[in-house]
Amino acid sequence: MSLFHISASRVRLFPVTILLFAMALPHVPARAQEPAQAVPHPPAASAATQETMARGEATGTLGRVVIGPDAKVVGRIIEVLVDQAGEPRAAVLDVGGFLGVGSRRVAVAWRALHFNPSPDGQGRIVLDMTANQIRATPEYKAADKPVTVAAPPQAGPAHP
Asked: What is the pLDDT of residues 16-69, one digit of tens each?
């Protein structure tokens, strides 16, 4: 007798056994699945608070004309440079030239600019530097590190 000898009666019972198994399978109780864990939703963002500024209390600076101490136009503010804390450190002015031809960009220290109010709410921006000081300032190039910034001379202590 070989190991693979199967009796004829067992061969006939095999399909019946499979059929009974298949019929009984749908009646086996399924294991209940655990409900999916609820994904926590972040709390809804609260509305931003609003502040009201009176007319003339604040104005934009980009594109504004800057005048010198002699009340002559020096140039226009085209960019504001801020430090890592977001505080303004310098303004880039487009100076000289006519209709953009022959003009150049210079950076001036923010402390050299004075914002004077006016009745129309726009105010004047006055630079504490002369035209000669501006002409002597190197041209501003955004890729330069560090940036050369023109500033008016500091009033030092009086020497005896």
From this structure: 666 666 666 665 555 656 666 766 767 666 777 878 877 666 678 889 999 999
**How far, CA to CA in Å, does 121 sit from each of 54, 60, 124, 131?**
10, 11, 9, 27
Nearest to 115 by CA among 88, 96, 149: 88
Instruction: Give the single-character DSSP code of 130.
Output: -
The whole-angstrom separation of Cα 11 and Cα 119 is 109
What single DSSP character describes residue 150?
Answer: B
At 77, list the tokens.
């503010």
- CB-hemisphere CA count at 13 Å for 154? 4
Report field, pTM of the whole predicted structure over 0.85: no
**97: region left, alpha or beta (phi > 0 left; psi from -120 to 50 alpha):** left
Would you state the CATH architecture of domain 65-135? Roll (2.30)
- Chain center to CA of 75: 28
| Structure tokens, 52 | 């009201």
β-bridge pairing 124-127 and 65-67: parallel
- Are 87 and 81 in contact by the 8 Å Cβ rule? The answer is no
